[in-house]
Amino acid sequence: MASITKDTHQPPKTPYWIACFNGVGSDGRVRRLKRSTKTTDRKLAQKLADEWEQLEKLAGKGRLTESHCRKVVAQMYERTVGEPLHFRTAREYLTEWVESKKNETELRAYWKYYQIVHQFLNHVGIKADRLLREITPIDIRSWRDALKRKGLAAPTVNHAIKILRMPFKAAHDAGYIEINPCTKNSVRPVKDEARNVAKDVFMPEQLVALISAAKSDNWKGAILCGAYTGLRLRDVADLEWGAIDWKEQKITVTTRKTRKDVTVPIHPQFASWLQKQTRGIGKAPVFPTLAGKSGAGKSGLSMQFKRIMERAGIRGRLLREAAGAGRSQSSLSFHSLRHTFNAALANAGVPVEIRQKLTGHASAEMNAIYTHPELEPLRAAIRLIPSVGL
Question: What whole-number distance in Å separates Cα of residue 122 and Cα of residue 126?
């Protein structure tokens, strides 16, 4: 029978109640054990003593399980602190984290998180149903390496790791795990073997070929829009008539990537295409056959544009060759229209500050990545350097 007692020293060395209960030693013999309850509450101390003795009995019969221990410790913690102690499995915690993102992010981002988390849980197998704290850096590095072996490009693998870092950091910050197994030091990114991966620009004759190769009028307009606004593919595809200010001759959109408002004057050539279309109002899409479509996948917008490039006989440099589940990556894609737009501004002498506003870039450094001066402006700059008399 468990009991409690006070320290008999005078004066007492501790004000806490001491639990006295029967336990089984390593030699199998029953012994009377004593342990401080760390509480001055008599009722709570007796409750702790009874629970400890019950655990000792289970241990003596060989029936003590981890779940028994977790349950008792959790109850003790909640009584003492007033909050529940979290003993979540990896699957429970990560699934709960993904679901919490449903109302915090765009649906597209939510499904990406869902995909990454469930891929990881499938990879770790039975460890998915063990405590979250049992996930180690080895598990995450193993998953990272498995993605690479499947043939996924280094940026794709590294993006997956970046997403997985989010729930583990949140768990560590909340105190659910003592050690974060997914820090940058414990799980390093995959090295990208590709070189000179910057996107190229489309030449004027290539833009003409693209527009001619586009089978639908929506795609012809989307190509013009990309070249003359610098908007990203999904921002172009989902452009609404309400974003167009005919009086001011400008387009204003909130970009999906940065959530920033970007205003771009309408180029005369794109304005000519728009004027030939049946105008809608409000949220009516400018490109109805493209609006709402995913950019990824075999039937996504990116692949549709790639097929337009193929019909136009345009092929960019091979940046990364396909391997396994991966995809070949070219230096030319719809995103190159954004580079083309920025390069045209740079070649016309438009200051970088204005180019940043038109493209929605956060910094001059990022805008510089998108600037591709053609050779003639470089030659003109070189001619300004004074000759040296010899």
Answer: 9
Closest CA to 243 of 233, 254, 234: 254
pLDDT of residue 375: 37
Count of C-beta atoms within a 10 Å radius of residue 270? 20
Where are the chain's structural domains?
3-81, 90-173, 204-378
Q: In CATH, what number does 204-378 get? A: 1.10.443.10
- Is 302 in contact with 328 (CB distance < 8 Å)? no
Nearest to 317 by CA among 178, 200, 144: 200
* Cα torsion through 69, 72, 78, 79, rounded to 10: -150
Of the listed ranges 80-89, 175-184, 347-356, the one predicted with least confidence: 80-89
Question: What is the share, in percent, of the chain residues with pLDDT greater than 90?
Answer: 29
Q: How far is CA 386 from CA 362, 378, 390, in A?
A: 36, 15, 12
Provide the edge-to-edge strand list for the sheet that holds 18-24.
3-5, 18-24, 30-36
pLDDT for 381 = 33
Q: For residues 207-234, give the mean pLDDT.
A: 91
DSSP assignment of 368-389: HHT----HHHHHHHHHTSPPPP
Asked if pLDDT for residue 376 goes beyond 50, the answer is no
Q: What is the pLDDT of residues 274-295, one digit of tens each?
A: 999 988 888 999 999 999 888 7
Distances (CA, A) of 31 to 8, 21, 24, 56, 367: 20, 8, 6, 11, 75
Residues 330/315, Cβ–Cβ less than 8 Å: yes
Q: What is the pLDDT of residue 98?
A: 94
In this prediction, residue 65 carries a pLDDT of 60
Please check whether residue 200 is in contact with residue 330, taking contact to mean a CB–CB distance below 8 angstroms. Answer: no
Q: Say yes or no: domain 90-173 is CATH 1.10.150.
A: yes
H helices within 134-216, ranges in order? 137-149, 154-173, 204-213
Q: What is the pTM of this model?
A: 0.56
Max CA separation in the chain (angstroms): 107
- Which strands sit side by side in the sheet containing 261-265, from one edge to the other? 244-245, 250-254, 261-265
Q: For residue 20, what are the contacts with CB-CB under 8 A and spacing of at least 6?
A: 2, 3, 4, 5, 32, 33, 34, 49
